[in-house]
Amino acid sequence: MKSRITTAAIGAVAIAALAGCSSAGGGAPAGEEGAFEPSDVRMTVPFSAGGGSDASGRAIASGLEAATGTTITVENREGGSGAVGYSHLFAQEGNGSQLLAAETTLLSLPLTTDVDYDHTSFTPIMKLGDDYTLVVVPADSPFQTCTDVVDAAGGEGVVAAVSGAISLDEIVFTLIEQDQGVEFDRVPFESGSEVIAGLLGGTVQVGSLNPGEVLGQLESGDLRALCSLSEERYEYEQIADVPTAIEEGIDVSFAQWRGFIAPGGISDEARQYWIDAAEQYVASEEYTTYIEENLMQPNAVYGDEFVEYLAQNSADLEAALAP
After folding, report:
1. What is the crossing angle of helices 146-153 and 168-180, to 10°?
2. Residue span of the structural domain in which 155 resides
């Protein structure tokens, strides 16, 4: 069983932003006494451009802009498997105009890495939905099933790509190792797009990617999906024929959630402002399009429900990663 992962300490990365005043439209509670009015809103993506987290952050920012009339600037702050971006938000205590496109790394980083925060250090706003992964290989790979991959990992070895040293990819490969009694050789990348490049370039043999990240390469035939790490097969037509790992005797399924958070210590008005905006986004065609184009499950929750979800998901993740 693998030991917990450590990374180099992340240096100070942020300067606290000053909250100013500007008008906000689209149903925002502007004009009321004590109402929150965002200024210079930033959406941090803690990974590089081109991957699933980047797509999620930009979709959320666009949806919130439409709901509020407020401009939201997306900033990629990659590094440390997401720790640089989360550290930046942690330094923005009390600033309701700072947001971050969050996913399972919010929970796995504090469990496996020496950072100064955990999920309770932030203000959860919305879980957008759930995103399982596919085990994929290059088109000319000798592997035809996930069972083939496991057998090779127990023999001559398999080089697996992970987008972040403690990402969802790391988690699912660890769970496969625990379930099957094998071990993968890992090569970490900073995003799903880099994993795809590594697969196509022959740097790695197998990868775990969200369907939305890799659908283009699957449709072009450059990559093949061997199995999905989900409880049931996808209903989306493009990948409905891909078997689950469970069907192949590998008892592993784990979803990555996606959503967004704000810094800790923001006002109740700021928290409610973003929850209201998130609810408007989820009711829009833009949200439905994002979910369907990225082959996700639309399980949105907000505020207190999101807090409860994170607590339970963190406990489940800690149990899964325990040495």
Report:
1. 70
2. 134-248
